[in-house]
Specification:
With 270 residues, the protein is mainly β. It is built from two helices and twelve strands, in the order H-H-E-E-E-E-E-E-E-E-E-E-E-E. The chain has helices at 8-13, 16-29, and strands spanning 58-71, 74-89, 93-100, 112-119, 126-135, 140-151, 162-171, 181-191, 196-206, 216-224, 231-237, 254-263. Strands 1-2-3-4-5-6-7-8-9-10-11-12 form a twelve-stranded antiparallel β-barrel. The longest helix has 14 residues, at 16-29. It is globular and about 50 Å long.
């Protein structure tokens, strides 16, 4: 099932959706409960690993990806940032939105925005998460099922050991092609210490309109920043943006970082 393509006028009206989402998310931030900071040490560059954050601590993530292009003056650096603002809610759920200044390779649009919700049921040592979202540039209903497992976890979270992640996605309109696509991938996180980890992932997108899409891959170094609630990931990949659509099809090699900024509005709102 996929949504019909709209004309330019209807596409322009959809720009009100991200604004409405931001207003709703900000209103939800005014009523937080206690919680801890957000981190990247338990996931990979292109897979969320079922991340849902902690209720009471809103998430603001900067995901910047750089690559080189030829210009008249030589090599030029192009930057494609993806910004995420998420509100973790009780019941192990997350409501969030992403905005990227450059749509994935092969898309006809310049910018990309995405809204999504995620639920991660409590299953003991097995991490499971279901994500449902909508891609604005592709006008696509997207879904993801993520499974993760920590082998030999330590006392701290996410734990000292190895984490395995498996992901299956369904895109009703893959990369704005008008045809659906299926993505399957996996990743591994090697926790070196309580706050430092190495990670890698890979996956492929299957579908008639995207049969020539490259395999997506990523590898990175994640770390908590001592003395602060922040964490950072330094990585290389071939995915242009951090959205569900963007991390489902590979292109040229990019270098990037993700920086997490936890926001506790309860510290500012009486």
């Amino acid at each position: 099932m996929f949504l019909p393509r709209s004309n330019d006028a209807s596409r322009g009206r959809t720009h009100a959706l991200p604004l409405a989402l931001c207003v709703a998310l900000f209103a939800a931030c005014l009523f937080p409960v206690s919680g801890n900071s957000q981190e990247v040490v338990g996931r990979t560059p292109n897979l969320s690993g079922g991340w849902i954050g902690t209720p009471g601590t809103q998430a603001f993530h900067f995901d910047h990806r750089f690559w080189f292009v030829d210009s008249t003056d030589g090599k030029a650096v192009v930057n494609s940032p993806t910004f995420l603002f998420g509100v973790p809610l009780p019941g192990r759920t997350l409501v969030a939105g992403r905005y990227a200044t450059r749509a994935p390779a092969g898309a006809g649009e310049v910018n990309e925005w995405e809204i999504f919700g995620r639920w991660a049921p409590e299953l003991g040592r097995l991490d499971a998460a279901i994500t449902a979202g909508y891609s604005g540039f592709a006008e696509s209903l997207d879904g993801e099922l993520s499974l993760g497992f920590w082998a030999n976890p330590g006392e701290s979270l996410p734990g000292n050991g190895i984490r395995l992640i498996a992901v299956v996605r369904g895109l009703s309109d893959a990369l704005g092609s008008g045809d659906p696509g299926w993505f399957a991938g996996g990743g591994i996180v090697l926790s070196l210490t309580d706050g430092v980890a190495l990670s890698a992932d890979a996956g492929t997108l299957d579908g008639d309109a995207v049969k020539d899409a490259k395999t997506v891959w990523g590898a990175g170094l994640q770390a908590r920043i001592p003395g602060s609630p922040h964490s950072i990931s330094l990585f290389s990949s071939n995915a242009r943006t951090g959205t569900l659509q963007g991390t489902s099809a590979g292109g040229r090699t990019v270098w990037g970082f993700e920086f997490t900024v936890p926001v506790r509005l309860s510290n500012f709102v009486p």
